[in-house]
């Protein structure tokens, strides 16, 4: 397939991941094996920097056959058609197996049971259908692609920032500003490899926030992602000294709630891959989150 770079300095692997719908690790593996032609020259280095207008020829590898074990796990399906589905993921559910996590209780296992082979194969065996992810203890809306064409469309919308992902979170402390933007690069923490951190040289990360309600020692906040880095909202909330309640990994308190971060993917705006129609999906706060809010008293200012 032929693609054209839109800006100077973008890494080849990042560019191809965005336009092909593949994960960066899958692109890196494909580049090492077969490479990609940039203006007719074969390139195999993931970090090769493109220039605006560069012509990139890249053939996505054939998807690996799916062999994830189906598991009969209940799912809340907000919407489903032949091209994609929107799932309301519960807190505590892992999206897909990764690293040392090999249990068959993930969202992917549940999807395989419900949808069988009707999932895109772009991300191979471990992540069939998965276009974007939610952390284990973040609840809410996640979109799943049911074929490769829909996957590429949805992935491109996220990359090009036409899809909107809006979260509700409860943070420690009183955020003084009514709204703001955190524009701070994120990379893997050098001190703790399980964590991400704001770090010079990291990938650009932008989070917009708006205060919804103040509770004195806590603030209910609406977050909107402009980029989608690992743990982005959690890292940025901690960076402005207002970590997410229930998130001890990033300094959040657990006095109110200790079952995981109080962060919920509440809205998902995207274009239908088949029709182009703008679709908006919403999810109410889960009962445990709503119950926490009922136990604290809103401020009058």
From TrEMBL:
RNA-binding S4 domain boundaries? 10-74
Which InterPro entries does the entry mention?
Answer: PsdUridine_synth_cat_dom_sf, PsdUridine_synth_RluA-like_CS, PsdUridine_synth_RluC/D, PsdUridine_synth_RsuA/RluA, RluA_PseudoU_synthase, S4_RNA-bd, S4_RNA-bd_sf
Q: Care to name a GO molecular-function term for this sequence?
A: rRNA pseudouridine synthase activity
**Keywords of the record:** Isomerase, RNA-binding
Q: Entry's Pfam families?
A: PseudoU_synth_2 (PF00849)
Domain of life, per UniProt, equals Bacteria
Q: Which PROSITE patterns match?
A: PSI_RLU, S4
Q: Which residues form the active site?
A: 135
Q: What does this protein do?
A: Responsible for synthesis of pseudouridine from uracil.
Name of the protein in question: Pseudouridine synthase
